[in-house]
Amino acid sequence: MRTFRYVALGALAAAMLATTALAAPTKSIVISGTYAGNASTKIDGGTATIAATGTGKEKTLGAGKITGNGTGDSSQQPCVPFGGTGTVTGPNGVITFKVPTSSSGCGDEGGHVFAIKGVMQVVKATGKLAKAKGSIRFTGTYSHDDGSFSVKLTGSLKK
Length: 159
Description:
Strand 5 (93-107) and strand 6 (113-125) form a beta hairpin. The model is unreliable at 4-9 and 17-21 (pLDDT under 50). Helix content is 13%, strand content 64%. It starts with a helix and ends with a strand. The chain has one helix spanning 2-22; strands spanning 28-44, 47-58, 62-73, 79-90, 93-107, 113-125, 135-143, 148-158. The chain has a single domain, classed as Beta Barrel (AOC barrel-like), CATH 2.40.480.10.
């Protein structure tokens, strides 16, 4: 019985060491970029349907595009919560993301210019960012008058 305990403890220790040795170190990848483009919003009752497309550059992905689709609760003023999905693409890869409804656009008194902010949760990444996980913060502005938007992306992903 005593021998069995020592063998079991030895096997457990060996398994723990092997797992530790095989675990790859986590690499942090800085995300930094700016994008600008046009967005359309269609209001139906208290729901705003949003579609956006823009161009810009992210440090790792390079020059490319950002696209997104989502919905917002326009009955909540002055800050409209919104969420949706989209992609950031460039010659060095693609980030597919989800924006949770905790993101918001806060309008001025006339509802013309909105300060937007939120988080893009990475669903999948390819290319130089393959297997990267995490969230990216975004801040920017959206003009309801002409549909223009600009956003800044910041944060880091783990790989």
